[in-house]
Design goal:
heterodimer, A: 409 residues, alpha/beta, Rossmann fold, 2 domains, 15 helices, 17% strand, B: 254 residues, TIM Barrel, eight-stranded parallel barrel, 47% helix, 15% strand
């Protein structure tokens, strides 16, 4: 019987019988790829020629001066093709899809980053592509929908449930149970049934492998602390993977939304509001009520707006290996603003969560310390959301004028 | 126990009917009237679904019913009370159907105990494969409750045998890929699959997913022991009202 992917008490594979054979096939393809050194080599070559790997490590000299504590380094996943670490997982799964001989990929997306990355992969490899996206997210991320459609994907707005990321995952599963013979579900994060948490982490581990070598080369030492935002957990697992066996403190930062005491957040591990449950095929901490019904979540960053969290991160929290914090929407906007001004870098709202916690802790460390922040994605392409988060009056006027221009046609 | 009951009923009829409702949709009053109509129309066994916010195996109709029930304020406790009420009042076996998180959050042992006290016959949990079902199997066995598992067309013979080893009461054979409620082409192509199911277990076989009218039920005579009518009765209720349910069910076999 295939291994079912447990990390302590978390993980597993809670899937309908109709999908069992499909998961067995996927597990086998993944195991073969892992055992084949040529596969990882091909993956690195692809990411070096099509994306921007290895992504650089940037020394944030001005921020370091500003806080007067630890030296701050930033891993630039925003420089991947399509603008986020999502490309790592998607291109890796694309290579697997080719190995399995399937011709269609489907995916869920929240902010739209994973959807754009999947549609890009499908265009490059010649796969048919359908992206499921909550209706609420379609409305707040229209530019990403525009690009997915240009890339040839069919974008299906999900009108069920809370109409955000988790509902898009449910719809993708419903498509998969019907079309699994020719279709692969390219799940975007380190959640879901086995082998997804392990497989997505494996592809994303390229971040941590590179970052460890780069920090060592640049500073002659390992970082004191590593910070990453946590939605499903794929960029965090990616960068943490490089340091799990080192004496390096790992810090995951979740969406604190309007504040942990308001209930309007998506902090599963940093708040007391989540409890152990089983949904979307795996066991982890979920934001749910006493009956086990999933609750509504909130974040300024659509990509962190999710009820569950990687079972691997739940395990690392329980074992004490990773510490978790939360950043509020307001703190995120402030940290983003500071980073843009001081460094000329524009992290995505998701990534800016990691910056918030790093900025809180940098002053308490000394200049001998090095801290590493994973900038998982770029924010400039989410201009509509970021402009709203900054509440920019000139941007609002521009949109009004643009609307009038369209109306006049 | 459940298997014997069904086998006895099967001596009297060529095909048995298992029907399904989502409890509390659109209201518990309506649910009670639907159960009453179904029992009067002669169904042999019923599935009572406790709504869940993430029903990944269900199609649009049952998904909406889950959401409608939750929006109307359904709780797990209210559903269990309803289950107890109908199990005491009507002389057919009732199964609970829900997703595993509902049982898990309640406490699997406490849930099984509550089911037994309520006079319910067993449960179907579509996102709980046998490999993950250790606690559930122990708790259900301790309270003499049937653990209904699922076969699908792409379940291997070897796996069918493994599932059959832990299945109790009946085995639910999914007719095709996909979610509940979509059309199924009932043709001889099903025969090879159903023959594999028959070889794998002596338990009564129920076939569901897409069974919607008398022609479908007629096709299943002699092929399986029970026809499962799920989505279609919700459609009938939504389009024609609760009063249309009894004639609809009666028309499936008359």
């Amino acid at each position: 019987m295939p291994e079912r992917g447990y990390y302590g008490q978390f993980g597993g594979s809670f899937i309908p019988e109709i999908l069992v054979a499909t998961f067995d096939e996927l597990i086998q393809a993944f195991e073969e790829a892992k055992a084949d050194p040529g596969f990882w080599k091909a993956y690195e070559t692809l990411m070096g020629s099509y994306s921007c790997r290895p992504t650089p490590l940037s020394y944030a000299e001005n921020l370091t001066e500003h806080f007067g504590g630890a030296r701050i380094y930033i891993k630039r996943e925003d420089l991947n093709h399509t603008g986020a670490h999502k490309a790592n997982n998607v291109m890796g799964q694309g290579l697997l899809v080719k190995r399995m001989g399937k011709s269609r990929v489907i995916a869920e997306t929240g902010a739209g980053q994973h959807g754009v990355a999947t549609a890009t992969m499908a265009a490059k490899f010649g796969f048919d592509c359908t992206i499921y996206m909550g209706e609420v997210d379609v409305q707040r991320q229209r530019p990403n929908v525009f690009w997915m459609e240009r890339l040839g994907a069919t974008v299906v707005p999900v009108t069920e449930g809370t109409r955000i990321l988790k509902d898009a995952i449910n719809e993708a599963f419903r498509d998969w149970v019907t079309n699994m013979d020719d279709t692969h579900y390219a799940l975007g994060t380190a959640c879901g049934p086995h082998p997804f948490p392990e497989m997505v982490t494996w592809f994303q581990s390229i971040i941590g492998q590179e970052a460890r070598g780069q920090v060592l080369k640049e500073t002659g030492r390992l970082p004191t602390r590593v910070y990453a935002c946590v939605g499903g957990g794929s960029n965090a697992m990616g960068v943490f993977s490089g340091f799990l066996d080192d004496d390096v403190e790992l810090v995951g930062v979740e969406a604190g939304g309007r504040g942990l005491d308001t209930g309007a957040h998506a902090a599963r591990l940093a708040s007391r509001d989540a409890s152990l449950g089983v949904a979307q095929g795996y066991k982890t901490y979920f934001l749910q009520d006493d009956d086990g019904q999933m609750r509504e979540t909130h974040s300024v960053a659509a990509g962190l707006d999710y009820v569950g969290v990687s079972p691997i991160l739940s395990h690392l929290k329980e074992s004490g290996r990773v510490r978790f914090a939360a950043a509020t929407d307001q703190e995120v906007v402030d940290a983003l603003s500071l980073t843009i001004r001081k460094e000329g870098l524009i992290p995505a709202l998701e990534s800016a969560h990691g910056f918030v916690q790093a900025f809180k802790e940098a002053p308490e460390l000394s200049r001998d310390d090095v801290i590493l922040i994973n900038q998982s994605g770029r924010g400039d392409k989410d201009i509509f959301t970021v402009a709203d988060a900054f509440d920019d009056p000139n941007w609002r006027q521009f949109i009004r004028d643009k609307a009038e221009e369209y109306d006049a046609r | 126990m459940l298997a014997e009951t069904l086998r006895a009923r099967r001596q009297e009829r060529e095909i048995l009917l298992m029907t399904h409702i989502v409890m509390g949709y659109p209201s518990f009053d309506a649910s009670l009237r639907v159960v009453e109509a179904m029992v009067e129309a002669g169904v042999e066994i019923m599935e009572l679904q406790i709504p869940f916010s993430e029903p990944i195996a269900d199609g649009p109709v049952i998904l909406h019913a889950n959401q409608g029930s939750l929006q109307a304020g359904s709780t797990v406790e209210r559903c269990l009370t309803f289950g107890e009420e109908v199990a005491r009042r009507f002389d057919i076996p009732f199964l609970l159907m829900s997703y595993y998180n509902i049982l898990f959050k309640y406490g699997v042992e406490a849930f099984a105990q509550r089911m037994a006290e309520a006079g319910l016959a067993g449960a179907i949990v579509p996102d709980l494969p046998p490999e993950e079902a250790g606690d559930y199997l122990a708790a259900m066995a301790a309270h003499d409750l049937a653990t209904v598992f699922i076969f699908s067309p792409n379940t291997s013979d070897e796996r069918m045998a493994r599932i059959a080893a832990v299945a109790q009461g009946l085995v639910y054979c999914v007719a095709r890929k996909g979610v509940t409620g979509a059309d199924t082409a009932f043709s001889d192509e099903l025969d090879a699959y159903l023959a594999r199911c028959r070889t794998a277990t002596d338990l009564p076989l129920a076939l569901g997913f897409g069974v919607k009218d008398r022609a479908d039920v007629d096709f299943l005579r002699g092929r399986v022991d029970l026809a499962v009518i799920g989505t279609q009765t919700i459609r009938v209720m939504e389009e024609q009202g609760v009063d249309a349910i009894k004639p609809f069910i009666e028309g499936l076999r008359s």
